[in-house]
Each structure stands twice: as structure tokens, then as C-alpha cells.
């Protein structure tokens, strides 16, 4: 073995050592983050995930209050839908009755009902679905005495999600119609 | 400017197209095959021309660059194995005159492309003349070639035209390289995406943004006969179908409808637009004649009817409807009569698009939480799924009906991060799936026809 070869080998061994150390360091860092997330997950699990999800979704309709704003004080601005559905749930009808009552008291207010879909459908179909949802809400408001010329509908399809997650809970928050003051 | 897009063909003569039977041929209907070894020699440029071109384009070696455009096009088809230029034994100028076939056989090349770039002055304006020849190495003869003269800035298009010629000659199918793709460029967080119309050459070069991003724009589609585009814009919060002339930038609303219009597509003759009108919770399909301004309702059903697409002969329309309870694909006559459901597989179906060849319909399918791009015959038989993913949709055909381009979105992580939307393409055979490079995130692609002259 000549000198250059020995040097080369020594260099290779040194390089190898460096790589191994680098890997080891990386790994240990990763393990720390992993273990911290595991702890967090374990904590959430202690809080009983089934009960938690039950408190947020009924079937696949969102019933929580996260993301829900107010049209007026004590009047929620949005209602939620089941996948591919435009039927108003009991809770949705209650919300819309509150909206209608408030709109009857404030007869100078006009609104836009925005219809939305989740990301699990084709863009064009979801535009139609959003329009159908917004109209379901509009029709209910009209039944409770709000005249149709005060309500515009606007479908956003799946273009304006409120929750960027890719999971059933996020999707349930995005399947919604939102009543927004227009003036 | 029309000239900006049109190639100025001063002359275009064929150098003795090979009448004799060529030895090299590719069968592209087979899925998995050995790619054909092909050499694209750098195009020869003399020193005087090189100087002039450098002044015009700021490109050092235009001949080499043109050969790279061709190489890139051919290798992305998956049908050709483009050989490394380092292995070429013969100089570009001599090879173009008369190749020493043994030199090319030695590196196992079966086909050779050579060329020459010369600068010219016509009416005191600079032009480039580009010659190309296609050689059958095993048969030891020239099989095709042409020469054309154009303004220097058109050089990439010449590369695409040469690629089309080579593809046509070797596969027997028409090419798709001298084409463009219009799409929606996306930026920003998932909850507040900013979307702009963008157009680029089929190979991802020459990207131009056609709108500023002030309003939401969706689903642009080319007119198959000219450079017009139809799309959905939320201008003034009124979602309506628009018509855009990409040469002049002029935009106008299509028709006068009492509600949201969306899902537009041109008829094959480019004279009509079919689309959906959503009103009072019901979406129906309408057609508007752009010449007579007559608009007509084609469907009449309380369900959602959307995503219409004409057959290439204009006699039929395929569309998406949930009248059976779920999204399925239907076909009807173009007057709205004889509605027939054609999709009966498991899952739900959307976005039917008729192939330019007429024999297939591409679609998006959702089954067991996965999205598929697939094709079926126009009577619904022969369903074939080409690709599966977390989310993908919006297939659009290459003008020769061999390739489908679509967009794919990624699943976000626990924190809602990591969202992206990209364009992908896949061969009709289900092979050769490729990411289509775009400057930004991208969706809703539409492939143009061949640009012509």
C-alpha cells in the first residue's frame, strides 16, 4: 500500500465517521421531537378523544363553536352540513331562526349567504353544492319572514376553507353556509 | 400583437421526405416498452450567425439550446432514450451534411437528428433560418426534414415544431409539442389562496400571468380553434363565465344570466360555450352561441347538472349529475335529448372530458377516500383507472389524445401545513406519470390545440 492510498483510506474513514456522527445527531434530535409529540398525544388521549370528537361532531356535521362568528350579539353566523348534503339540521334551523329574528328587527340590513363545501369533491360540483347549501339557508330565512331581496347568495365551492386540515373534523367545519352583513 | 404568437413562416420546404419505408417505428399503444435510442446533435451555427444571434437573444449557443428543447420534449414522452451528447463522435456541421452512420451505430443510436441555424436579414430585419434533418441510422438514410425562417425570439417554437415532426414521423400519431397550457397559478395559505390565470408553453417555459390575482379565477379552458379562453371569475363578487382574448387581453362576460355561471367549455367549432347556471339551489346546463348570442337551457332536472364537455363531432355532450343520488357521468345529444347515465362502477364520478379522438371519456373518480383519474368508453364500458392519489381531478387531453394533464393536491399535516397543488401528466396507457413544472403552485390545466403557423 503506498502513501496516497493510505491517506485516501484514512480520509474515507474520517468521512464515514463524520457521516455516522451527523446521522446520530440528527436522529437524537428527531427522537426528542417525536417523544414530545408523543407526550402531547398521550395527554390528549387522557382527555378521552371519543368524547371530545362527540362534542364536536354529530354524525359528520360539525356542532362545535370553533370558527363560529356572530352576525349580531348572540346570533351565530353559520350553519354546518353533512357530506354532500344540503339538509338543515335541528341546530342549523335554530341558528337560522335567530338570524331571521334579528334580521326582522333590523330591517335595513341586507346579507350575503355564502355557501361552502369541503375539499373532498371536484371543484365544479362543489360550486353547485355551495350554491345549493346557501339557498337552503336563504329559503329558511325567507320562511321566517326575511324578504328575498335582502338576501344574496354566493357560492365559493371549496375555494375558501376556514380550516386547512385534511381530516374529517376540518372538513366538517368547512361544509357551511355563512350569513354575512352586506351593508 | 398577432406576430408575437404566430410563427412567421417565410418558407417551409421539405427536404425530400422519405417516401421509402422507414425502418424505425414506435408502437405507442403499448404501455411498457424499450425507449428508442435517439441522438440529437447540437444544431450547427457558423460564427457570423452566432455573433448576430447573441446580439438579438443573448444566447451563446442557440444551436445547442434548440437541440436541448427537442431532446427534452422527446425524452419526456417516455418513448425515446435521448443519448448523452458527450458520447457523440461526429461534429454537428459534418453530421448535418452527411452522417458517418457507423459512428452513430457505435453508440447504439437508431435515430439521429441534425440541424443548422443561420442568421438572415430580410427587409433590414433580423431573422433566423433553422434547418433540420431526421436520419434513420440503421437504414443509413435521411427520412425527413424541413427548414423554416422566423424571428429570433421564436426559436423555442421551432424546437417544438421539429419535435412534432419527429414524433409524427416515428409514431404515426400527430404531435403535441407546439402547444400551450393555460392553468390557475396559486399562492398563499390554503384558507386565503390567491389565484391568477397563467399560460405557458407545454414544456413549462415562457410563463405569462394573465390576471393580477385581485379576484378569484377558476377553470380556464382553451377555444380549440383560436387563442380565446373561457373561465370563471369572481369579479365584483359575481361569479360569472368570462371570455378572454389572450392576444389582446380583452375580457367580457359571457351572456346575461340571473345567477352564477360556471364550468364553461367551448364547442369543438369554438362558436359556442356550454356551462352551468346555478339559480335558486339548482344547477342546469346551458349553451350560448357566441355568434348569434342565443342562449338555451339543455337540462331540466332539480339535481346538480354540471361539468359539460362536447364530443369532438359536436353531436353529444357528456356531463356530471347527481340525479341518481350521487355524482355520476351522463351523455346526451347536444340538443339536450336522450340523456343516458354511463358510469356504473363503484364510487362517485365527476369532471367527464371527451377525448379529442372521440372514443374515450376521461373522468375523476372518488372511491374509498381516494381520488382516481381514469378513462372509459363513451358508452361507459372499459373503465380503466390510470392513477390514484389523496386528491386529484380536472383531466384535460393533449390535442392528440395520448396524454392527460390534471392537478393533484397534497394532504396537510396535523397543523394544517404542507398544502400544495401541482400539475401532473400521465399517458393514456397509465405509464409515464410526470410532474409538470410550474413557477408557482398550479391547478385546473387546459391543453391548447397545436398552434399552427
Helical proportion of chain B, percent range: 10-25%
CATH class descriptor of the largest domain in chain A: Alpha Beta
Number of helices of chain B: 6
**In CATH terms, what is the architecture of the largest domain in chain A?**
2-Layer Sandwich
State the order of secondary-structure elements of chain A, H for helix, E for strand: HHEEEEEHEHEHE
Strand % of chain B is 35-45%
Q: Mind telling me the C-alpha Rg of chain A?
A: 27 Å
CATH architecture of the largest domain in chain B: 6 Propeller
Give your account of this protein's structure.
The complex is a heterodimer of chains A (183) and B (453). With 183 residues, chain A is of the alpha+beta class. Chain A has helices at 3-46, 49-56, 90-105, 123-143, 168-174; strands at residues 57-58, 61-62, 70-72, 75-76, 78-80, 111-116, 151-157, 176-181. Chain A folds into two domains: 3-47; 54-181, OmpA-like domain (60s Ribosomal Protein L30, Chain: A, 2-Layer Sandwich), CATH 3.30.1330.60. Chain A has a four-stranded mixed sheet. A two-stranded antiparallel ribbon of chain A has the order 1-2. In chain A, strands 3-4 form a two-stranded antiparallel ribbon. In chain A, a hairpin with a 2-residue loop joins β1 (57-58) and β2. Chain A is globular, with a radius of gyration of 27 Å. In chain B, the strands form seven sheets. In chain B, strands 1, 2, 3, 4, 5, 6 and 7 form a seven-stranded mixed sheet that branches. In chain B, strands 10-9-8-31 form a four-stranded antiparallel sheet, with no helix packed on it. In chain B, strands 11-12-13-14 form a four-stranded antiparallel sheet, with no helix packed on it. The two termini of chain B are 15 Å apart. The model of chain B is unreliable at 1-22 (pLDDT under 50). The A-B interface holds A 84, 86, 112, 119-125, 127-129, 131-132, 134-136, 139, 154-156, 159-166, 170 and B 189-193, 216, 218-219, 232, 237, 239, 259-260, 262-263, 276, 278, 280-283, 304, 306-307, 320, 322, 326-327, 350-351, 364, 366, 390-391, 393-394, 409, 411-412, 414, 416-417, 419, 443-444.
Amino acid at each position: 500500500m503506498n502513501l496516497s492510498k493510505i491517506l485516501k483510506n484514512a480520509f474515507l474513514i474520517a468521512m464515514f465517521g463524520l457521516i455516522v456522527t451527523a446521522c446520530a445527531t440528527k436522529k437524537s434530535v428527531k427522537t426528542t421531537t417525536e417523544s414530545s409529540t408523543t407526550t402531547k398525544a398521550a395527554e390528549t388521549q387522557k382527555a378521552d378523544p371519543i368524547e371530545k370528537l362527540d362534542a364536536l361532531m354529530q354524525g359528520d356535521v360539525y356542532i362545535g363553536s370553533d370558527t363560529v362568528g356572530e352576525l349580531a350579539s348572540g346570533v351565530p353566523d353559520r350553519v354546518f352540513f353533512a357530506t354532500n348534503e344540503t339538509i338543515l339540521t335541528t341546530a342549523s334551523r335554530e341558528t337560522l331562526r335567530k338570524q331571521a329574528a334579528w334580521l326582522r328587527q333590523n330591517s335595513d340590513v341586507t346579507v350575503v349567504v355564502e355557501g361552502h363545501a369541503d375539499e373532498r369533491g371536484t371543484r365544479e360540483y362543489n360550486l353547485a353544492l355551495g350554491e345549493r347549501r346557501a339557498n337552503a339557508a336563504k329559503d329558511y330565512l325567507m320562511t321566517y319572514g326575511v324578504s328575498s331581496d335582502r338576501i344574496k347568495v354566493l357560492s365559493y365551492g371549496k375555494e375558501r376553507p376556514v380550516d386547512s386540515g385534511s381530516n374529517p373534523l376540518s372538513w366538517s367545519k368547512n361544509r357551511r353556509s355563512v350569513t354575512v352583513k352586506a351593508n | 400583437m398577432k406576430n408575437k404568437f404566430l410563427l412567421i413562416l417565410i418558407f417551409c420546404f421539405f427536404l425530400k421526405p422519405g417516401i421509402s419505408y422507414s425502418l424505425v417505428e414506435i408502437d405507442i399503444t403499448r404501455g411498457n416498452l424499450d425507449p428508442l435510442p435517439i441522438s440529437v446533435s447540437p444544431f450547427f451555427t457558423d460564427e457570423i450567425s452566432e455573433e448576430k444571434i447573441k446580439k438579438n437573444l443573448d444566447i451563446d449557443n442557440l444551436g445547442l439550446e434548440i437541440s436541448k428543447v427537442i431532446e427534452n420534449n422527446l425524452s419526456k414522452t417516455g418513448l425515446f432514450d435521448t443519448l448523452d451528447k458527450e458520447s457523440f463522435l461526429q461534429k454537428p456541421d459534418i453530421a448535418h451534411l452527411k452522417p458517418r452512420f457507423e459512428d452513430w451505430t457505435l453508440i447504439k443510436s437508431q435515430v439521429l437528428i441534425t440541424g443548422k441555424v443561420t442568421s438572415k436579414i430580410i427587409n433590414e430585419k433580423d431573422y433566423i433560418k433553422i434547418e433540420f434533418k431526421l436520419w434513420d441510422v440503421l437504414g443509413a438514410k435521411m427520412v425527413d426534414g424541413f427548414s423554416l425562417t422566423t424571428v429570433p425570439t421564436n426559436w423555442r417554437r421551432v424546437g417544438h415544431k421539429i419535435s412534432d415532426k419527429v414524433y409524427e414521423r416515428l409514431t404515426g400519431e400527430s404531435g403535441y409539442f407546439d402547444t400551450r397550457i393555460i392553468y390557475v397559478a396559486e399562492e398563499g395559505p390554503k384558507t386565503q389562496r390567491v389565484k391568477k390565470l397563467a399560460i405557458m408553453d407545454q414544456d413549462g417555459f415562457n410563463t405569462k400571468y394573465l390576471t393580477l390575482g385581485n379576484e378569484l379565477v377558476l377553470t380556464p379552458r382553451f377555444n380549440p380553434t383560436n387563442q380565446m379562453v373561457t373561465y370563471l371569475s369572481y369579479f365584483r363578487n359575481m361569479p360569472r363565465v368570462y371570455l378572454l382574448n389572450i392576444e389582446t387581453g380583452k375580457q367580457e362576460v359571457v351572456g346575461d344570466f340571473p345567477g352564477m355561471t360556471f364550468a364553461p367549455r367551448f364547442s369543438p367549432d369554438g362558436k359556442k360555450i356550454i356551462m352551468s347556471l346555478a339559480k335558486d339551489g339548482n344547477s342546469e346546463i346551458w349553451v350560448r352561441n357566441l355568434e348569434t348570442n342565443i342562449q338555451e337551457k339543455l337540462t331540466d332536472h332539480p339535481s346538480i347538472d354540471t361539468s359539460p364537455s362536447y364530443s369532438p363531432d359536436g353531436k353529444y355532450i357528456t356531463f356530471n349529475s347527481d340525479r341518481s343520488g350521487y355524482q355520476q357521468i351522463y351523455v346526451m345529444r347536444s340538443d339536450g335529448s336522450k340523456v343516458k347515465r354511463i358510469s356504473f362502477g363503484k364510487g362517485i364520478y365527476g369532471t367527464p372530458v371527451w377525448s379529442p379522438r372521440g372514443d374515450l371519456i376521461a373522468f375523476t373518480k372518488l372511491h374509498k377516500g381516494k381520488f382516481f383519474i381514469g378513462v372509459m368508453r363513451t358508452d361507459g364500458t372499459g373503465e380503466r383507472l390510470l392513477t390514484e392519489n389523496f386528491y386529484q381531478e380536472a383531466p384535460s387531453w393533449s390535442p392528440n389524445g395520448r396524454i392527460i394533464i390534471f392537478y393533484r393536491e397534497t394532504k396537510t399535516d396535523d397543523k394544517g401545513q404542507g398544502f400544495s397543488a401541482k400539475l401532473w401528466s400521465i399517458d393514456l396507457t397509465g405509464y409515464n406519470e410526470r410532474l409538470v413544472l410550474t413557477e408557482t403552485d398550479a391547478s385546473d390545466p387546459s391543453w391548447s390545440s397545436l398552434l399552427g403557423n
